[in-house]
Amino acid sequence: MDSFSYQARVEQRRESRFAADIDAILCWDGVSQPVVIRNISIYGALILGGWLPPVGQRVTLIAEGLEVWGTVIWEGADRCGLLLSSEVDPLAIIGKAGGRSEERPTITLHQVEPGRYA
């Protein structure tokens, strides 16, 4: 029986991202909105929220043990990416819960009959 293993395409990043679920506040132009930090790295964060600033907007991200300036570098319907203005320690921010690097699972296919894999 033949087997093949495939690994999902992985983004190449200089710094590891760590999964998070941290309540925070995002401030810009006199607006303060509750958000969730979904993942974080030394210089970036993925933010989820209902109302988020546009690309290019300077913001302040505030959470327990964190207050940092950043710039929105991309936006989606309910999320945006921040480039942080200074280095942060993701594991310290996440706390004792630690975190996990976002890794993609490996998929292994086994040949069940000639030309068919499962």
Please provide a brief summary of the model.
The chain is mainly beta and 118 residues long. The chain has one helix at residues 90-94; strands spanning 3-7, 18-28, 31-40, 44-48, 58-63, 66-75, 79-84, 106-113, 116-117.
Give an account of the 3D structure.
With 118 residues, this protein is mainly beta. The protein has 1 helix and 9 strands; from the N terminus they run E-E-E-E-E-E-E-H-E-E. It has one helix spanning 90-94; strands spanning 3-7, 18-28, 31-40, 44-48, 58-63, 66-75, 79-84, 106-113, 116-117. A 6-stranded antiparallel β-barrel has the order 2-3-4-7-6-5. A hairpin with a 3-residue loop joins strand 3 (31-40) and strand 4. The longest helix has 5 residues, at 90-94. It is elongated and about 65 Å long. 20% of the residues are buried. The model is unreliable at 96-103 (pLDDT under 50).
Q: What is the CA-based Rg, rounded?
A: 19 Å
* Biggest beta-sheet profile: 6 strands, antiparallel, barrel
Strand order of the largest sheet: 2-3-4-7-6-5
- Total number of beta strands: 9
Briefly note the structural class of the backbone.
mainly beta
Distance between the termini: 12 Å
Offer a few descriptive terms.
118 residues, mainly beta, six-stranded antiparallel beta barrel, three-stranded antiparallel beta sheet, 1 helix
Sequence-ordered SSE layout with sheet pairings:
Layout (H helix, E strand, L loop, with lengths): L2 E5 L10 E11 L2 E10 L3 E5 L9 E6 L2 E10 L3 E6 L5 H5 L11 E8 L2 E2 L1
Antiparallel strand pairs: 1-8, 2-3, 2-5, 3-4, 4-7, 5-6, 6-7, 8-9
